[in-house]
Amino acid sequence: MGDVTARTRKSYEQYCGIAVALDRIGDRWTLLILRELSFGPHRFTDLRSALPGIASNLLTERLRDLEEYELVEQRELPAPAARVVYALTPQGRRIIPVLRALARFGLPMMADPVDGEVKPRHAIFGGFGALFEPLAALDVELRIRFLLDGEEHWLEVSHGRLVRPDTSAQPDLTIEGTAAALVELCQGADEASLVPRLRIAGSAQARRDLEQVFLATATTLV
Amino acid sequence: MGDVTARTRKSYEQYCGIAVALDRIGDRWTLLILRELSFGPHRFTDLRSALPGIASNLLTERLRDLEEYELVEQRELPAPAARVVYALTPQGRRIIPVLRALARFGLPMMADPVDGEVKPRHAIFGGFGALFEPLAALDVELRIRFLLDGEEHWLEVSHGRLVRPDTSAQPDLTIEGTAAALVELCQGADEASLVPRLRIAGSAQARRDLEQVFLATATTLV
DNA sequence: CGGGATCCGTTACGATACTG
DNA sequence: CAGTATCGTAACGGATCCCG
Prior knowledge:
The structure is a homodimer.
Chain A: H1 17-25, H2 30-37, H3 44-50, H4 56-68, E1 72-76, E2 84-88, H5 90-93, H6 96-106, H7 120-128, E3 142-148, E4 151-158, E5 161-163, E6 173-177, H8 179-186, H9 191-194, E7 198-202, H10 204-215
Chain A binds a DNA duplex through helix 3 and helix 4.
C-alpha cells in the first residue's frame, strides 16, 4: 500500500552533515541545476539550454528528486506564456553558501576565459560574488551595476551581506565590458590591463570599497 | 609518446567556477575523502574504514585523481609504522570552506542521531564547526575542549576565525559527552534537555560566547 | 597486515528518438 | 514546450586475490 517508489538512491549512510548534504545534492548535475535556479525561476527548457550536455530524462529525474527533498518547487504562471517554472524553495536557498564556496574554490582553476564563451551570470556569481568577504564588508554600502556582454545585473553590499536586488537606484559603481574580462579580474589580473574589455566607473571611495570587499585576497580557514 | 592516460573524466565544460570545481571534486566519494583528510593525514586503510562502502579500487582512483590535481599528496613516514599517508596540500586545504558550507546545509537534515553511531570528528566538524559565525566572532577569544565518546578534540576561536590547534593550554569551555548529543545541540535541542548525555563546563562569559558564535542561528545570503 | 589490483554484476549516465 | 522511452556505455559496488 502506498507507492514505496523506493528512495533507492545510494546513500552514504553516515551521521554527518556533509554526507547527508551529499546524499541530497551530490549527484551529477544537481548543483548546477541549483546554481541556475539561484538566478531565479527557470522553465524546463531554460534549464536545458543553460546546462549543455544534460540529458532531458536526467534533468527530469533531478528535478523530481529536488522536489521530493523540498529544495525546488514548481510554480504555475498565469500568463499566456509557458505554464510552469521551477524555483528554489526557502530550504533550497540554503544551498547558496555552498555554491559560493565552490565558486571560490574553483575560480583559480579556470583557464584563460575567452570573450563570448563566459556567461555574464556565471562571471558574476561563479567569479565575482565568490570573492565577497563579509568581514571586510561590515561598514560598506555599495551598489554595483554590471553591464556584461549586453546583460545587466546588480549586486548590493549592505550590512556585511551580499544581496541581489532586481534593480537599484543609482549605482555607486558600474562595471561594463565582457564577462570573460571580469573573470580575469577576479583571478587577479590588473584592472588597467583589461581596458577596454572591462571598464569600471565610480567614485574613488566606491573603488576602494570594491578593492576591500571583493578583490583583496583573504584566506578564511578552519 | 607520453601516456595520454586520457583525462576522459567527464567535464561540464563551462567557464564557471562552480562547474570547474565540480569537475575536480564532484565525483562520488571525493568530498568525503577530502573531509577525512581535513582531519589530518590518513593511511589508505584508515580512509577505507572511515568510508564504509567505498570500493578499494575506487578509493585508489580518487586518490590518484586528487594527486593529479595537486589537492592531495603522499607523504612518506620514516617510522617503523606503515610507510605512506595521504594529506591535503595547501591547495587542497582550500576545500575546507566548501565542507563547512555543506555541513551547515546538511545539519538540519540529519535525522535522530543515536549515541554510538556518530563519530566525534563528524559531530564537531560536520555539525558544530558548521555553525561558526565569523561575523559574530570578531571580538571573541575562545578555546573549546571536546571530550566525546572518549575522544579529545580542540577548537579555537581567534580573531574572527575558527582554527584547530593540536592541543591548547587551559580551555575556556569543556564539552563532554556523546557525539550524538552534540549533534542534537547543533540541531537546536535545548542544552538542559541533553544532560547528562552532554555537559558543558565553563565560565558564564564563555557560555555566552558559545551561544553568540555558534548556537545563534544566522542566515547569510547572496 | 597494509596497500592495493582484478574481475564482474548492477546501476547511473549520455545520446537520441519519440510524444502529448 | 515539456517531458517520456529506449538503449549502449561508463561508472560504481562488492568480492576476491595478490604482493611486499
